[in-house]
Design goal:
The chain has about 325 residues and is mainly alpha-helical. It has helices spanning about 1-15, 25-55, 60-105, 125-130, 135-145, 150-155, 160-170, 175-200, 205-220, 230-255, 265-290, 295-305, 305-310.
Length: about 325
Amino acid sequence: FFVTGVLYLLGIVIMIVSDIYNAPVWTVLFPAVVSIITAGAFYDMAADSFTIDVTPPEYHARVIGGASTAGQSIGSALATILPLWLLNVGGYRLVFTLAGVTGLTAFLFLTVKEPDVVKERTLSREAIAYTFTEKTVMLAVLIMFFRSFTVMKITAPLGGMFSFTVREVIGADISMVSTLGLVATLAGLPGSMLGGSFSDKYGHKKAFTIATIAFAGAGFLWTTIGQGAVTWFIIVAMASAFLERFWTGTVFAIMADSTPLAMSSTVYQMYMSWSWIGNIPSSVLIGYLLDINLTTTALVTSSMMVLPLILGNYIKPFEAGKASNI
């Protein structure tokens, strides 16, 4: 958190004191942007690790699955609206400066109490060997990898090919695509919170199974969308966004359950990284499928939901409480 705050502060100072429109790109503007972006990555890792460390397993879905995904929805909705307005008001300097200012909240975490470094949290050769040979970790990695091939790639405004799908179906211009993306993002917000509460109340695996089947069903609805069917498209897109956030909350709860104490930040970020790694081949595949038609794309990606469903039911959480020996 300290490094995060320092990097944000460095980026802010460069943005404020420099004439970014006339200053050399590689010696002024580039370092400032890289500093702010790198700070975001540090913030992500620190926040994930801290959240997993302080959240009891019975609250994994509400905090990591619900609050985290809800925050993504709110942030993405604001990111759809604010940058264009800020650009008109104060240009790129204002956009990046405010991005840095929001990151200064990292310093607030320096005031909270960290969990004690007990035996279970100590990094050792045994911990490393155990973590990267443990069946649960391998299954969780595969779930996140195959998650990239599911129907969320065409239905989720927060990371996928949603905009390409919109243009494929209704031939919308850029402004319409942004508006529909915002509507779908906001529709997913209650799904995050409900998914987290439902999962913690009825069990993470049970909720994951139900959510996976429901989201796959929503994916098959995309096969019913005809060219130019704007109203039906909006209805299906909003329902899919709600169920995608609900489902993602249950997935993140499973990931938290699969994270060992000793290397919580490393392992949880590894799970997230494998989702991004999967985006590379899945984007090629889905780009090819969309070139055929939307119906084929929806059928294939909805059917792919069966892979994380099967793998998820073999996951065995590391501990019922947050203190068991490695």
